[in-house]
């Protein structure tokens, strides 16, 4: 009888989907203490995880584990080689949150351009009107550089175009013809794009190649006074370098949804920069987006139990050849 372990609560509709499946049992662990996980893991055939680590040691405690379904798209907290070695398939929810993150990205751009957070604070202090030290800007007619043209980046491009922005795209893994065929200008040399963009926004995964991508050299190559947006992964950015660029005016404003280390700590250098606005890794977490992610992750677990996982959700297809057998009710 397949048993699904959910690491922290997810949307009720997704739990109901799992519980309605014949022969499937569900366990939600609310507090992920070592004692709770030690008790739950040995029974797990499937795990749904939000933003917690799933490593090889945990998989070793679950000999019947077949799938780790990520409630989202980033999987840098999951030990992919370790899961593959044990025949554990890792899945993501590729379409579920792309629209939510794209909308959040536009929100950060607009909040930077209109100094929304700063003017909100001024009104609450009974200050009224525009002040010279807090100029606001239109984004229509500006140039945005989008780094990464995947599911989220393509949606950001469409929204930016709708707002009247000139859209540049840099993605070395996407053919130039594909980008141009979508109606956008392809950037071949990243520095060329950085030099002319009024807004730079990240939409690429965290990997050995991209970690620390946004460093002093990257920021120095940006057009002076540009905006910087990161709703992708915190480890793409060297935060001390970004803080210095914000203090010097090289970067006029930053909108940040993700940090190198989460949750935020008092020592994070960006906290001392008033021209940086934050959200607490909530770009994907709209009510609608959270429901879609939960349902997608739950469906992947059920599909895995019945050997019908679609290819586009699988991170490590090599694991399919190593999976443990599982008896599933019809």
TrEMBL record:
It is an enzyme of class 1 (oxidoreductase). Residues 4-314 form the D-isomer specific 2-hydroxyacid dehydrogenase catalytic domain. Signal peptide: none annotated. Residues 106-283 form the D-isomer specific 2-hydroxyacid dehydrogenase NAD-binding domain. Gene3D superfamilies: NAD(P)-binding Rossmann-like Domain. PROSITE patterns: D_2_HYDROXYACID_DH_3 (PS00671). It comes from the Bacteria. Pfam families: 2-Hacid_dh, 2-Hacid_dh_C. GO terms for molecular function: NAD binding; phosphoglycerate dehydrogenase activity. Keywords: NAD, Oxidoreductase. Its EC number is 1.1.1.95. Belongs to the D-isomer specific 2-hydroxyacid dehydrogenase family. This is D-3-phosphoglycerate dehydrogenase. It comes from Roseomonas mucosa. The lineage of its organism: Bacteria, Pseudomonadati, Pseudomonadota, Alphaproteobacteria, Acetobacterales.
């Amino acid at each position: 009888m397949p048993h699904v372990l959910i690491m922290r609560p997810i949307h009720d509709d997704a739990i109901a989907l799992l519980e309605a499946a014949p022969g499937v049992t569900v366990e939600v662990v609310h507090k992920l203490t070592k004692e709770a996980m030690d008790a739950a893991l040995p029974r797990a055939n499937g795990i749904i995880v939000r933003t917690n680590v799933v490593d090889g040691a945990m998989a070793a405690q679950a000999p019947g584990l077949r799938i780790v379904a990520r409630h989202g798209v980033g999987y840098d907290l999951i030990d992919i080689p370790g899961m593959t070695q044990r025949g554990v398939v890792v899945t993501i929810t590729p379409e579920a949150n792309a629209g939510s993150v794209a909308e959040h990205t536009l929100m950060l751009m607009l909040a930077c351009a209109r100094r929304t957070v700063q003017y909100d604070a001024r009104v609450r202090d009974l200050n009224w009107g525009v002040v010279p030290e807090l100029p606001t800007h239109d984004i229509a007619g500006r140039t945005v550089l989008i780094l990464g043209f995947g599911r989220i980046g393509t949606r950001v491009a469409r929204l930016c175009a709708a707002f009247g922005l000139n859209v540049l795209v840099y993605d070395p893994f996407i053919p130039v013809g594909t980008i141009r065929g979508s109606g956008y200008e392809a950037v071949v040399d990243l520095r060329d794009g950085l030099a002319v963009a009024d807004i730079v926004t990240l939409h690429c995964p965290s990997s050995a190649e991209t970690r620390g991508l946004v460093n002093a050299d990257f920021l120095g190559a940006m057009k002076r006074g540009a905006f910087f947006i990161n709703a992708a992964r915190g480890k793409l950015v060297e935060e001390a370098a970004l803080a210095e660029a914000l203090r010097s005016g090289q970067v006029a404003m930053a909108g940040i949804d993700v940090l190198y280390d989460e949750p935020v700590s008092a020592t994070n250098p960006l906290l001392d920069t008033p021209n940086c606005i934050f959200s607490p890794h909530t770009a994907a977490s709209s009510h609608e987006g959270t429901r879609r992610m939960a349902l997608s992750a739950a469906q992947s677990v059920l599909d895995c139990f019945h050997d019908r996982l679609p290819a586009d959700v699988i991170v490590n297809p090599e694991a399919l050849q190593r999976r443990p057998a599982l008896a599933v009710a019809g």
